[in-house]
């Protein structure tokens, strides 16, 4: 039947059609693949969101959070359970093992949640199927001044959000700010006493007069009528006219003792933008796994339809943050780097191969391998992005085709010259092409397999680093497979089509002079081989012993997302309104910077699940003008530093954190802290935890490089506690439930009914007038009727006092936690953490109470995990490559000789990092791992060709020179196209280049040193090692 190459040459048309089919499939896959700037690196988690309005964190923790945590202990594949409990809200996060299917995990959690008995008034549900990377668009609902905040929020909740939720791929839309509409029944305590009415009487009357009924069907001749009782409240007037009781023979209506008006519910959030103090914001959340570009297109279309006619006059939706901006700019950077790399690769091929036809033939490998990779990406659900496509080195992809094409050109050129010398006008092309491909088939396949093996450590990465870099490795492997298929099957077929009349090689004087100079250099170096070996050994020792330790370490380079995310924490207990006033000062200060395009400020938290923060916290998104228009700052970090100085001068006691929106939410969700470093304490007593955290922040603040040092969770705040005196309650005949109901309804404004306005509905709330509950003393004067109907002041049956209570309670794996956090600037995280740990062990660890634990966490934790992973996997991969080399050469010495290419390649990569002031990171580690396999390729070609020359009978030194000369052009082309393929990425500075640049730097300069050392040092080392030949075909002169 023959080999695949022979089959391809016999059935050229079918193989060309198959190649065209792959190309068409790749185009179709490209149109279907989701497009995003960065992979979704958030952990697979499910959130249980429980609202319990009006309840303090301590009560919700005891009655809601802990029971949910207990119920979730048996859920399979759960790695960590975290919770946050604040006023009126409990959030329990279950983090599942990587690879857990989203809806399977939600089903398991829902099953356990259904069996939990929650207290009255508490409502639990699962958060939408989104991720911390899911915020794709933010908009402001603006008005020309004719529509107030309450009406705007109502329009957002009942018109805008329902329309956006119909867009395929939208998981949720959250409202922030504005005034939530409700109908408030405001009661004066004096009128209650005057008419002998209680709060319970009012609540009971409202509920009794807000009901609907159904009375089956009434037959009527040949027809039937459905009987329906319509008693639902539909207007404020109907509420006001509710009958309470008869008094002196006259009816007492609700309007006689209370005022019924539409009024805002108790506020938990204020949204501000630029110089507008209050507005309404919407946050669009992407369903996990959807295509952001397609979803955003649908959202923008829906917004356009709403603006064109569905919104009232004077109201418009103004998007101000669109993730497509990040996607477009990142892909623009990728496209620029990739296209420039491809152009450079083609130019190099033209320069070395001379003939445009051969250069074009080899260059076709690039689109073929890319389209082949796109098909496999579509099959394995890998989105298009910075690290999936942007990190492909098309120079490496074409290396196999370069070697095959260069050998075909050389052999076909020799055959053409021989035919011309014999006077024959034609050359039998197919046999020559077949022989040329067979000659390099084995080294090409083995080399490519070793290149693929170099990506195994990346494919085996887990957690954040795996989610970030695995798509790159998978895409690169797919492209390498496509390039190998093209090199071995399509290049021979196309060569027989393009060069039917033979191939005429041009060998210029410059090339000949270069070859002669290279041969002389090799002979001189072999004569002085021991100084060469010593020089290389010294270089390796210096790079490994002196340069590498000075690089420092970090998890990832700075990932520029575009906007700046500022978090400001004011003193605990600061009111929402006062915090918003502070926020106004911050906004105006930030807008003084001409580099700022907008600033959007969120004070407090939304009523939904997305922002579990107290009223004393502000989160601000700062949009920036294009960096090309900046005049005062060269880089974004410089601008951030200037903003930080300005705001800290204005608010010296406020805790500020400067970060970016996506990375902040992802790291908070995955690591439990958004900081570079977090020191997490767990134990039973909150006061002890607070003391440990404060001592640790004081320690961290003294270490050079620390910034934004504070405690992750807010501290205690003042609470007004009403504690019923059970003995006094019994004495007056009042139940504790009566006291709790007074607090719930009259003070807390708990909903007691619903008013329907068309397809909209709003809560009905009964509250006492604000002046009657303006102080603890006034609250103590509130009256409750005892069992005989006599009024009793609340102060006589309950203790009313102000005491500190928790603002937020955080837990992890059933233990309360508190975290000291800090970011690290102008210093690598590895040395900072090492110093912090050493001082902590010396100064704080000895006083750690029994039963308390400490855990070091944050971004550096990911670095340590990745480092441990590489320390285990890379030696195994090197051993695998060594076994493959041993099998390839059947010689231990040859295998060791080629393996030396790895440290030779590392010399250039590490020196480049040192010169460019780049620390070792997961990104550079990925580059080094990829470099291992790539650097082996040239060594395999060199050693195999030298060995073939020796097997042909040449003396050792002559075999080395002739073998090196024969592979000189192929090695130079393969190396230079690989270098030039990623050179633009190593020098890129655009949005999205931050994580790509260190990786490309390592590969480019590692290949540079590897190529030079392969051409000059490997032949010298071959002379030193003198590998044994298979079959012992050694000449005596050896």
CATH C-level class of the domain at 507-562 and 859-1038 is Mainly Alpha
- Helix residue percentage: 40-55%
Q: What summary fits the major beta sheet?
A: 9 strands, antiparallel
The number of helical segments is 34
Number of DSSP strands? 30
**Portion in strands:** 15-25%
CATH architecture of the domain at 507-562 and 859-1038: Up-down Bundle
What labels describe this entry?
1038 residues; Multidrug efflux transporter AcrB transmembrane fold; Alpha-Beta Plaits; nine-stranded antiparallel sheet; 53% helix; 20% strand
Could you explain the architecture of this structure?
There is one protein chain. The chain has 1038 residues and is α+β, with helices and mostly antiparallel strands. Helices cover 53% and strands 20% of the residues. Among the domains are: 1-32 and 354-505, Up-down Bundle (Multidrug efflux transporter AcrB transmembrane fold); 43-129, 2-Layer Sandwich (Alpha-Beta Plaits); 507-562 and 859-1038, Multidrug efflux transporter AcrB transmembrane domain (Multidrug efflux transporter AcrB transmembrane fold), CATH 1.20.1640; 575-659, Alpha-Beta Plaits (2-Layer Sandwich). It has 34 helices and 30 strands. Strand 13 (269-273) and strand 14 (276-286) form a beta hairpin. Helix 10 (323-353) packs antiparallel against helix 11 (356-363), helix 10 packs antiparallel against helix 33 and helix 32 (922-951) packs antiparallel against helix 33. The longest helix is centred in the middle third of the chain and has 36 residues, at 463-498. The radius of gyration is 37 Å and the shape is elongated.
């Amino acid at each position: 039947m023959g080999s695949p190459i022979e089959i391809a040459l016999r059935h050229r048309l079918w193989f060309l059609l198959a190649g065209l089919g792959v190309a068409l499939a790749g185009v179709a896959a490209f149109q279907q693949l989701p497009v995003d700037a960065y992979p979704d690196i958030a952990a697979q988690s499910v959130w249980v969101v429980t609202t319990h309005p009006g309840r303090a964190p301590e009560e919700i923790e005891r009655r809601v959070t802990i029971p949910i945590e207990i119920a979730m202990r048996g859920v399979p594949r759960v790695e960590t359970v975290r919770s946050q409990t604040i006023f009126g809200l409990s959030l329990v996060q279950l983090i599942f093992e990587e690879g857990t299917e989203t809806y399977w995990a939600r089903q398991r959690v829902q099953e356990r949640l259904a069996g939990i008995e929650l207290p009255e008034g508490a409502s639990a549900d699962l958060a939408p199927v989104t991720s911390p990377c899911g915020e794709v668009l933010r908009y402001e609902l603006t008005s020309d001044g004719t529509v107030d905040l309450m009406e705007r929020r109502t329009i957002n909740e009942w018109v805008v959000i329902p329309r956006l939720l119909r867009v395929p791929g939208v998981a949720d839309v959250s409202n922030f700010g504005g005034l939530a509409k409700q109908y408030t029944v405001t009661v004066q305590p004096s009128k209650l006493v005057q008419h002998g009415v209680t709060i319970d009487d009012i609540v009971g009357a409202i509920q009794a007069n807000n009901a609907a009924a159904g009375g089956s069907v009434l037959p009527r001749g040949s027809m039937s009528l459905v009987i329906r009782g319509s008693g639902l409240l539909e207007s404020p007037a109907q509420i006001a006219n509710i009958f309470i009781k008869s008094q002196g023979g006259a009816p007492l209506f609700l309007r006689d003792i209370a005022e019924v008006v539409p009024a805002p519910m108790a506020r938990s959030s204020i949204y501000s933008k630029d110089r507008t103090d209050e507005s309404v914001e919407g946050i669009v959340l992407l369903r996990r796994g959807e295509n952001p570009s397609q979803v955003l297109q649908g959202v923008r279309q829906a917004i356009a339809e709403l603006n064109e006619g569905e919104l009232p006059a004077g109201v418009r939706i103004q998007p101000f943050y669109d993730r497509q901006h990040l996607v477009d700019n990142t892909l623009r950077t990728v496209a620029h780097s990739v296209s420039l790399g491809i152009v450079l690769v083609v130019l190099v091929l033209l320069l070395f191969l001379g003939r445009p036809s051969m250069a074009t033939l080899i260059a076709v490998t690039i689109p073929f391998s890319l389209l082949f990779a796109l098909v496999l990406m579509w099959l394995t659900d890998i989105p298009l992005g910075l690290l999936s496509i942007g990190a492909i080195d098309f120079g490496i992809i074409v290396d196999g085709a370069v070697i095959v094409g260069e050998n075909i050109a050389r052999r076909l050129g020799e055959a053409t010259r021989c035919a011309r010398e014999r006077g024959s006008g034609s050359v039998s092309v197919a046999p020559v092409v077949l022989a040329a491909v067979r000659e390099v088939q084995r080294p090409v396949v083995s080399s490519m397999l070793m290149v693929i093996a170099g990506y195994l450590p990346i494919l085996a990465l887990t957690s954040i680093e795996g989610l970030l870099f695995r798509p790159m490795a998978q895409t690169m492997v797919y492209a390498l497979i496509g390039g190998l298929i093209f090199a071995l099957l399509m290049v021979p077929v196309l060569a027989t089509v393009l060069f039917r009349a033979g191939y005429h090689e041009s060998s210029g004087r410059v090339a000949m002079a270069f070859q002669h100079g290279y041969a002389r250099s090799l002979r001189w170096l072999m004569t002085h081989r021991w100084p060469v070996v010593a020089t290389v050994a010294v270089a390796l020792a210096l790079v490994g012993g002196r340069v590498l330790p000075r690089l420092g370490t970090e998890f990832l380079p700075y990932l520029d997302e575009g906007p700046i995310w500022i978090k400001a924490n004011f003193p605990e207990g600061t009111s929402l309104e006062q915090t918003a006033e502070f926020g106004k000062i911050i906004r105006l200060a930030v807008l003084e910077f001409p580099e700022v395009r907008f600033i959007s400020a969120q004070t407090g938290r939304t009523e939904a699940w997305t922002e579990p923060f107290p009223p004393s916290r502000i989160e601000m998104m700062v949009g920036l003008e294009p960096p090309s228009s900046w005049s005062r700052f060269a880089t974004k970090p410089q601008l951030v530093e200037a903003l930080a100085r300005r705001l800290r001068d204005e608010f010296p006691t406020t805790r500020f954190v400067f970060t970016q929106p996506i990375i902040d939410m992802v790291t908070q969700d995955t690591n439990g802290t958004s900081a570079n470093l977090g020191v997490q304490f767990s134990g039973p007593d909150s006061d002890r935890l607070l003391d440990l955290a404060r001592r640790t922040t004081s320690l961290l603040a003294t270490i050079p490089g620390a910034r934004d040092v504070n405690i992750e969770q807010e501290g205690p705040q003042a609470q007004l506690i009403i504690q019923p005196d059970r003995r006094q309650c019994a004495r007056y005949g009042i139940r504790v439930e009566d006291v709790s109901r007074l607090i719930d309804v009259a003070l807390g404004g708990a909903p007691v009914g619903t008013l329907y306005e068309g397809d909209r509905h709003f809560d009905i709330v009964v509250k006492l007038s604000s002046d009657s509950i303006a102080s603890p003393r006034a609250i103590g004067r509130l009256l409750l009727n005892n069992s005989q109907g006599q009024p009793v002041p609340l102060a006589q049956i309950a203790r009313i006092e102000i005491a500190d209570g928790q603002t937020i309670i955080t837990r992890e794996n059933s233990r309360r936690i508190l975290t000291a956090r800090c970011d690290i600037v102008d210093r690598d995280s590895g040395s900072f953490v090492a110093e912090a740990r050493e001082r902590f062990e010396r100064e704080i660890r000895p006083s750690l109470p029994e039963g308390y634990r400490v855990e070091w966490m944050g971004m550096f934790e990911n670095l340590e995990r990745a480092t441990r992973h590489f320390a285990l996997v890379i030696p195994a991969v090197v051993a695998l490559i060594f076994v493959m080399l041993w099998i390839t050469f059947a010689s231990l010495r040859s295998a060791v000789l080629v393996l030396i290419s790895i440290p030779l390649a590392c010399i250039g990569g590490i020196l480049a990092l040192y010169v460019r002031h780049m620390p070792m990171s997961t990104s550079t580690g990925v580059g080094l791992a990829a470099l291992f396999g790539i650097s082996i390729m040239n060594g395999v070609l060199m050693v195999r060709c030298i060995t073939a020359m020796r097997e042909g009978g040449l003396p050792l030194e002559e075999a080395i020179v002739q073998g090196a000369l024969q592979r000189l052009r192929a090695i130079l082309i393969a190396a230079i196209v690989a270098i030039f393929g990623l050179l633009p990425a190593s020098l890129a500075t655009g949005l999205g280049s931050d994580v790509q640049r260190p990786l490309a730097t390592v590969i480019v300069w590692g290949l540079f040193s590897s190529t030079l050392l392969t051409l000059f040092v490997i032949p010298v080392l071959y002379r030193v090692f003198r590998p044994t030949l298979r079959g012992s075909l050694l000449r005596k002169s050896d």
